[in-house]
Amino acid sequence: MLPVRGRNGRAARPARLLGTRTAWTPVSDGEFFCPGCGGDRNYQRLTGHRRFMLLGVPVLPRGETAPVVECAACRRHFGTDVLDHPTTTRFSAMLRDAVHTVALAVLAAGGTCSRTALEAAASTVRAAGFDDCTEDQLNALVEALAADTGRAYGQSCGAGLAIELHEALDPLAPHLAPVGRESILLQGARIALADGPYTPAERDVLATVGAALTICSDDVTRLLAAARTPS
Predict the structure, then answer these.
(1) Beta-sheet strand order (sheet of 77-79)
(2) Which helix (H) or strand (E) holds 30?
(3) CB atoms within 10 A of CB 9
(4) 3, 33, 90 from 68: Cα distances, Å
(5) To which H or E segment does residue 79 belong?
(6) Residue 80 vs residues 43, 68, 170, 193, 200: alpha-carbon distances, Å
(7) Would you give the distance in Å from CA 55 to the centre of its chain?
(8) Which of 51, 50, 48, 5 shows the shortest CA–CA distance to 26?
(9) CA dihedral 77, 82, 83, 88 (to 10 degrees)
């Protein structure tokens, strides 16, 4: 049998007799960080059913496929683990909240909430995204934290404060490059050093920050020492 020729005179490709096709069904949607586009995009979560095809007609089911995430912009498919990565908006909020929590923890450990430490903390928190943060606001929050937990200024990092630090930093750490994790620790160190050398309580808090950010203890020691050296 001669091949069928197209309008341009070339032999047309014969139709596929056999094959499989996946029929996708949307089950949910939302916003995610698309690795293909490199930014926040809408997505659909799809489940798939494979079907055996004969002359382009589905005749037999071949089972389910693993669910995928389809980007509404580039239409590429990704594994569902891509949804574990925060969107750019969510990541910014996580980073801002983490810096705020570290600043409060260091101030609470400092023992005095001196004006220089408050100024350093407020400047750090504003740079992280809380544009209207003031020294008085931070001072009031530290006092409220002490009253709520029954802690006195200058105490070592207790269980309650350690839990708060881990809750703020644990979800963020996997999405930060090493330099990003170190930056958060160094910001806390500079707040602690604003009114003098580290106190034992401040070192304890900063060690907890380092552990939550998955920075090894030797690197925490190195970074805290480096923060004391003027650049």
Answers:
(1) 18-34, 39-54, 57-71, 77-79
(2) strand 18-34
(3) 6
(4) 39, 14, 22
(5) strand 77-79
(6) 11, 6, 21, 44, 45
(7) 48
(8) 48
(9) -110
Exposed, middle or buried: residue 181 (CB in 10 Å: 0-12, 13-18, 19+)? buried
Query: Using an 8 Å Cβ cutoff, are 14 and 3 in contact?
Result: yes
> What pTM did the predictor assign?
0.78
Of the candidates 47, 38, 48, 42, the residue with the CA atom closest to the CA atom of residue 29: 42
Instruction: Give me 1's structure tokens.
Output: 């049998």
Residues of the chain with pLDDT under 50: 1-7, 9, 11-12, 14
Q: Phi first, then psi: what are they for 176, rounded to 5°?
A: -105, 140
* Residues near 153 by beta carbon (within 8 Å), at least 6 away in sequence: 108, 109, 110, 111, 112, 113, 142, 146
**pLDDT at residue 178 in the model:** 95
CA atoms within 13 A on the CB side of 48: 16
**70: which strand partners?**
44, 77
Amino acid identity, residue 177?
A: A
In the numeric block, which tokens belong to residue 182? 């170190």
- DSSP structure string for 119-181: HHHHHHHHHHT-TT--HHHHHHHHHHHHHHHTPPTT----HHHHHHHHHHHTTTGGGS-HHHH
Q: How do strand 18-34 and strand 57-71 relate by DSSP bridges? A: unpaired
pLDDT confidence of residue 4: 42
